Amino acid sequence: MKNFFTTLSNIWKIEDLRVRITNTLLFLLIYRVGCVVVLPGVDPASLNTHAKEGLLGLLNMFAGGAFSHASIFALGVMPYISASIVVQLLGIAVPYFAKLQKEGESGQNKINQWTRYLTIAITALQAIGYLKSQITGDARLIADPVFTILNVFVLTSGTLFVMWLGERITDKGIGNGISLIIMVGIIAQLPGAVATEFLTRTGGQGGLVTFVVELVALIAVVMFTILIVQGTRKIAVQYAKRIVGNKQYGGVRQYIPLKVNAAGVMPIIFAQALMFIPAYIPSLFPSIAANPTVMALANYNSWPHNLLFAVLIILFTYFYTAITVNPNQMADDMKKNGGFVPGVKPGMATANFIDDIISKITLPGSIALAIIAVIPALASMIGVTPIFARFFGGTSLIILVGVILDTLQQIESHLLMRHYDGLMKTGRIKGRSSAPAVTGTNPVI
C-alpha cells in the first residue's frame, strides 16, 4: 500500500502528466454530463428505459446508458467506429484509399477527413432509425416532421461533439480519447449491474455465496482476457553490421512481436452483425417465424446460436488477421533495413516463415476469443442476470482490458522517462501498443 501511495505521489509530481490526467477527467466528466441531457421534445417519463437486449443492449452499453434515456449523446461514437471500419476496408478494396494509407501524415489527414464525412452520413441515417424505433407515442412532445428534423440535427451534432472530445483527450490528455469514452460508457453500467446481481442473489436466488463465486469467476475471466490481449509470439531478427564513418550500426538482435490476437475485438463485432440477422427473419418472413431452427438461432442464450457465433468469430479472426497483417511487407521492410531471421533466407522465404507462424498462433487466439465472446451467454444460462452477464466477456470486456492496459502503459512511460519507478515491480506494463505494431491500420478500439 505504501508503494501505491508513493506511485500516486510520483504521478502528481510530474506536471505534464498531472495536467494530462486532469484534462482527461474533465473531458470525460463533460461527456457523462451530456449523457443525461435529454433530446428536445422528449418526455423522459414516457421512455422505455428497461435493459436492452442484443444489438440495442450493446449500443446502450457503449453509450453509457445514453441510448435508452434518449440523450443528446444517444448514438455515442459508434457511427464514428463504423465509419472507421468502412474506410479501413476501403483501403483494401479501393486503390485510392490504399494509396492514401501509404502517403504518411498527409494521407492520414485525408483519410481522417473522409472518415468524418462518412460519420456524418452514418449518424444521420442512424438518428432517423433511432427516433422512429425508440421514441414513439407519448414520449414525443413535438409533432413530425419538426421533431425528426430537429433531433436528427441534435443527435448528429452530439456524435460530432463526442468525436471532438475524443480528439481533445488524445491531444491534451492521456490515452486514446475515443477508446476512453467507450470504456467510460461501459464502466458506467457496472455499478448498477453489480447492485442488481447482489440484490437478486441476496433476495433468495442463490444467496451471498453464489454472488461471491460469480465475482471470483469474473476476476478469472478478466485475467484470461488479459493473457489473450497481451499474448505475443516473438520472432528473432538479426541486423547486419554497417560501418558509417567511425561508427558501427546494426549487429544487434531484435524481435518482431506477433500478437496471438492480432484482430482485436473486430471479429466479435463482425460476427455479432451477422448473428442479428436471424432475429429479424421472423419480422420479414412471418411464415417461418415458428421454425425451430430459426427460433434457436434467434435466441441469444441457445446452444445453436452460440456455436454458430463461435465459428463465425474463428473465421473472421483469420479473415481480419489476413487483411491487417502483411507478411510480405514485413519481410521487405526487414530486407531493406539489413535484417534477417536467423536460419531463413531474406525475401519470400521470410514472408512464408512469418505467414506460417501467424497461421499457427491465430488458431488458439481465435478459439480463445470465441470462448470469451460466448461466456456472457453461458453466464445467462446458469442464472446470472443479463446486465451483469455482459461483463463476463464479449466486446465490452476486451475493450475494457485493452484500453486500461494502454492507458496504464502511457502513464508508466511518463514515470520511467522522469526516472521514477514503474507501476509494477515485476516488470513493465504491456498494453496493446506496447510493442511495434505489425503492418496494418487498426480501428481506434
Automatic annotation (TrEMBL):
<keyword id="KW-0811">Translocation</keyword>
<feature type="transmembrane region" description="Helical">
    <location>
        <begin position="263"/>
        <end position="285"/>
    </location>
</feature>
<dbReference type="GO" id="GO:0065002">
    <property type="term" value="P:intracellular protein transmembrane transport"/>
</dbReference>
<feature type="transmembrane region" description="Helical">
    <location>
        <begin position="114"/>
        <end position="131"/>
    </location>
</feature>
<feature type="transmembrane region" description="Helical">
    <location>
        <begin position="177"/>
        <end position="196"/>
    </location>
</feature>
<dbReference type="InterPro" id="IPR026593">
    <property type="entry name" value="SecY"/>
</dbReference>
<feature type="transmembrane region" description="Helical">
    <location>
        <begin position="80"/>
        <end position="98"/>
    </location>
</feature>
<feature type="transmembrane region" description="Helical">
    <location>
        <begin position="361"/>
        <end position="382"/>
    </location>
</feature>
<keyword id="KW-0653">Protein transport</keyword>
<feature type="transmembrane region" description="Helical">
    <location>
        <begin position="388"/>
        <end position="408"/>
    </location>
</feature>
<comment type="function">
    <text>The central subunit of the protein translocation channel SecYEG. Consists of two halves formed by TMs 1-5 and 6-10. These two domains form a lateral gate at the front which open onto the bilayer between TMs 2 and 7, and are clamped together by SecE at the back. The channel is closed by both a pore ring composed of hydrophobic SecY resides and a short helix (helix 2A) on the extracellular side of the membrane which forms a plug. The plug probably moves laterally to allow the channel to open. The ring and the pore may move independently.</text>
</comment>
<keyword id="KW-0813">Transport</keyword>
<comment type="subunit">
    <text>Component of the Sec protein translocase complex. Heterotrimer consisting of SecY, SecE and SecG subunits. The heterotrimers can form oligomers, although 1 heterotrimer is thought to be able to translocate proteins. Interacts with the ribosome. Interacts with SecDF, and other proteins may be involved. Interacts with SecA.</text>
</comment>
<dbReference type="GO" id="GO:0043952">
    <property type="term" value="P:protein transport by the Sec complex"/>
</dbReference>
<feature type="transmembrane region" description="Helical">
    <location>
        <begin position="146"/>
        <end position="165"/>
    </location>
</feature>
<feature type="transmembrane region" description="Helical">
    <location>
        <begin position="208"/>
        <end position="229"/>
    </location>
</feature>
<feature type="transmembrane region" description="Helical">
    <location>
        <begin position="305"/>
        <end position="325"/>
    </location>
</feature>
<keyword id="KW-0472">Membrane</keyword>
<dbReference type="GO" id="GO:0006605">
    <property type="term" value="P:protein targeting"/>
</dbReference>
<dbReference type="InterPro" id="IPR002208">
    <property type="entry name" value="SecY/SEC61-alpha"/>
</dbReference>
<keyword id="KW-0812">Transmembrane</keyword>
<keyword id="KW-1003">Cell membrane</keyword>
<comment type="similarity">
    <text>Belongs to the SecY/SEC61-alpha family.</text>
</comment>
<dbReference type="InterPro" id="IPR023201">
    <property type="entry name" value="SecY_dom_sf"/>
</dbReference>
<keyword id="KW-1133">Transmembrane helix</keyword>
<dbReference type="Pfam" id="PF00344">
    <property type="entry name" value="SecY"/>
</dbReference>
<feature type="transmembrane region" description="Helical">
    <location>
        <begin position="20"/>
        <end position="42"/>
    </location>
</feature>
<protein>
    <recommendedName>
        <fullName>Protein translocase subunit SecY</fullName>
    </recommendedName>
</protein>
<dbReference type="GO" id="GO:0005886">
    <property type="term" value="C:plasma membrane"/>
</dbReference>
<dbReference type="InterPro" id="IPR030659">
    <property type="entry name" value="SecY_CS"/>
</dbReference>
